[in-house]
Amino acid sequence: MESFPLIPLESIVFALSEALDSADPQLVSHQLRVSYIVRILGRELGFRGEALEALVIAGALHDLGLFTAEERARALEEDPQVIKKHTLVGYLMLRDFPYFRKAAEFILHHHTPWEKLKSETDEQTALGANVIHLADTLEIRIRGLHPLLLHAPQILEEFRARSRDFAPQIIEALSKVGQRELFWLRLERFKKETELILQVEHTTYLPCQEMESVAAIFSVVVDLKSPFTRVHSAGVASVAGWLGEALGFSRYLLGFLKVAGYLHDLGKLSVPESILNKPGRLNEEEWAIMKAHPFVTYRILEKIPHFETINAWASSHHERLDGRGYPARLPAEALSMGARVMAVADVTTAILEDRPYRSGMSLSRAREVLQGLSGKALDPEITSLVIQNLDYVRDLVTQARETRFERFETWGYILED
Questions:
Q1: Which residue among 119, 159, 213, 228 has its CA within the 20 to 30 Å range from the CA of 347?
Q2: Can you tell me the distance from the alpha carbon of 14 to that of 128, in angstroms, rounded to the nearest whole number?
């Protein structure tokens, strides 16, 4: 009988938040440090239980709606258009998942000044959103300052002068916690395990079967980093799920396959857009950077409890039967059926999907490519299954594209080729 482990929601959020922050070297650990500040201030303000959990999650994901380096740079410059867009998109991405609904409301309002915010929503939402606004502003303000204790008094004075932007009780809470040297020292020598994971007082435990919805949310962030991969992870998840069903995977393991499909390219968040968006052949240095992405995926997912199988499958999607894959150069006997499914699903989706610089391959050409890889790079049984049903598989990829683009449209997110 299969067991269904429960996964601490905050552990998922912290791991994926760290991945999001890796997309910009200037903002490493930004959202995690905001989440730390938010927890400290939230406790001081009386947030407890699920309300505090939602606040901490919102702090860790508040920039979820920023997909590209240009958007992040414009957000740092407080471009009103980007500020409005990313708060709304972040809210829309999270609101339909019950475990993230309250966090989504905090994110929606987290750039609204207090004088305007307090009349627009209920008191708890207004206060929570304003806490995130202050924590976000504070984290950016202190970057590069050393020693931080030297600058702390001046920083506190600056925030006391911003009464229109922040609620008086939040300023008072910051003044109180800011008197403790430990508050600033933890920020300056930030360690995720100590400042976040060990501080959890209450957490929701997410059933494994709910992970598919969470994984789908984060796959959007990965795919929208580059115009070349807008729907790629959704296509891989769909094809992998169909293959698993055809091969007789249990319902439980089918869910693992789909989650692995959605998250297999998480490591690409750490790859510069100049490399991701290059339509031609990569040079040696670029290729060396690109080849690290499955291992980065592994590093991200290994921090989530009970993700061992999902992680093994997701991070092995570029391994080959002939041992010439990367990053581990695993031999055929070391590749599980799940890892083999992921490799076939990844290649198949990539050659069938339309991209801005080229259309998907014709079915006849796709068959030739897959046959050429069968038995060398890809499992012959699984590849044969795809080739025999290539019309249907192409429909799966197309449907994944249409579904995702419909969602982008409901968000008001305009894609430009």
A1: 213
A2: 19
